[in-house]
Structures are given as C-alpha cells and as structure tokens.
Amino acid sequence: MRAPVLLLIAHGSRDPRHAATVHALVERVRSLRPGLRVETGFLDFNVPSVGGVLESLAAQDVREVVALPLLLTRAFHAKADIPAVLREAPARLRIRQADVLGPSPLLLSALERRLYEAGLTPADKSSTGVVLASAGSSDPEAIAVIADIAREWWRTGWCAVRPAFASASLPRTEDAVRGLRALGCERVAVAPYVLAPGFLPDRIARGAAGADVLADVLGPAPEVARVLLERYDAACRPALAALGA
C-alpha cells in the first residue's frame, strides 16, 4: 500500500516571507522522509489553495491523504476552517486530519535553538527571563495551552518565562518584557512561538524593542520538521493497525 500523501495546510499571508518559509519547511520534511509525497495548500492569500490541491490529488487517482494543519495550537482554523475545507474534498479521497503541532517537547527544543542562535548560551538560562510570544487567539483553549507551555519551559531552568500575545489576548510582548525587567531578570529575551514571518510576527518584533535578545521564528527548524512527521505517523497509525488486523 502506498503511504498516504502528506498535505500541509498553511494559513497563507500577503507577506512573501510566509510562503517562502513554509516551502523551506516542506523541503526539510522531504529531506527527513525521502519518498514521502508532501504537498502544500493555503487557506488564503497564496496558491495553491487547499481545495485545489485536493482536486488535483483526486484527478491523479490518489486515495489516501493526511491533512496536517501548520498550526501551533487548536484554535478556530483547526476546529472550523480546515474541517470545512476538507468536507468539500472529492468523495474518492479518504482524508484524515492530523493534530496540530503543539504542544511538543520538540518545539521547546526549537525555541531554545532559536534563542541560542540569537546569542544566548545554556549558561545564560538561570539569569534570563523569556517572553514566549505567540500570535494570539480568542479561543480559551489555545490561550491556556500557551500558558502551560510557558510554565513547562520555565521548569527547564530559565529565570522566568512569561506568555505574551500579538493579538486578541493580553499581555502584549512589550508588557511582558517590562514585567520581566521588574522581576529582576538580568537579561530579557523574546522567543516568537510562530512558524513563519508576517504581520503578527512583525508586531512581536516591535514589542521586543526593550529586550536584549530577539529570536527568529521557528521556521524550518529540524525539530519542527520532526514534529510534522510525528503527527503524520500518528494519523496513519489507525489505518495501518486495521490492515494488520
């Protein structure tokens, strides 16, 4: 049996850096799993659209697809937008929607990678406060997940870790930076918990003006690619188990 096609579903953006980063991540996934067919579809702004990719796959006689949202939390897009698009897919396609990427220990490793690339070292952890800056959401579940990640990350040895949001929720990045200064952290770093550049990541960067260190977005970090493959494998597992039975 051929392995299901992996369809990565990205939000899309008018900012060309967004699509470029998504495509770089796709190439990283392909390098880790040679032979796996990986396609990309966008919900908005960019092409190809998710619906267009699904139509094309059906025309090529593909039968099995794992649709994987390039999202870090289960918010509106994962719960509503993406399922709605997948329901409109050609009937001949069997589609399984994989889980979103976060939370995952691998993503914490990717966040630390980006901070070290920005100039910090493991020896700086105990004296550095970190702002975990996400895009933000009006979904209480998504907000609670970010708070949980901040607490888990703090337990790995950072002076403090505070969540912040670029939209929809508070505090903003600049407020969290000031809070860590007031707490007495020797230095303050901002770690964007976002996958690709764009409007909201740029807002995070502006809010980090008072910090000592601003890390890059997660982008095509190898840890992110590994999470994608973990989610893909987990979505494939029930079908493989049924074949074994």
From TrEMBL:
InterPro entries: CbiX-like, Sirohydro_Cobaltochel/CbiX. It comes from the Bacteria. Keywords: Lyase, Metal-binding. One of its GO terms (molecular function) is lyase activity. Pfam families: CbiX. This is Sirohydrochlorin chelatase. It comes from Streptomyces filipinensis. The lineage of its organism: Bacteria, Bacillati, Actinomycetota, Actinomycetes, Kitasatosporales.
